[in-house]
Amino acid sequence: MNIEEKVKSVLSEISGEEIIENDATLQGKLALDSLLMVTLLVEIEETFGIELDETDMNPFELTTVQSVINMVSKYCGGDENE
């Protein structure tokens, strides 16, 4: 399972949505409130074994599924097959 698939799996679990599109908005389409956004970040850290920097936890920058995938790729060296 690559980074994109893992991120979408986490988002599906948190949001309850079965189909997760890359351009879906986290707070709009997936209806993630502030508590679910925190849950997302914790799940991302646990799933990928990374520790996110505070600057990457800005809800104004993490707006779409693709932005989450990009952030995780940065921590995982951009290896899509991680």
The helix-and-strand class reads mainly alpha
Q: What is the count of distinct domains?
A: 1
Order of helices and strands: HHH
- Number of strand segments: 0
Low-confidence parts:
none
Number of discrete helical segments: 3
Mean pLDDT comes to 92
Terminal CA distance reads 7 Å
What does the overall shape look like?
A: globular
Q: Which CATH class applies here?
A: Mainly Alpha
What's the CATH topology name? Answer: Non-ribosomal Peptide Synthetase Peptidyl Carrier Protein, Chain A
In the CATH classification, which architecture applies? Orthogonal Bundle
State the helicity in percent bands.
40-55%
Q: Please compute the radius of gyration using only Cα atoms.
A: 11 Å
Can you give keywords for this protein?
48% helix, Non-ribosomal Peptide Synthetase Peptidyl Carrier Protein, Chain A, 3 helices, globular, mainly alpha, 82 residues
3D architecture notes:
By secondary structure, the protein is mainly alpha-helical. It has a single domain (3-10, 24-75), classed as Non-ribosomal Peptide Synthetase Peptidyl Carrier Protein, Chain A, CATH 1.10.1200.10. Helix content is 48%, strand content 0%. It has 3 helices and no strands. The protein has helices at 3-15, 34-48, 65-75. α1 packs antiparallel against α2 (34-48). The longest helix has 15 residues, at 34-48.
Task: Summarize the model shown.
Helix content is 48%, strand content 0%.
Topology:
Blueprint: H1 3-15, H2 34-48, H3 65-75
Helix pairs in contact: 1-2, 1-3
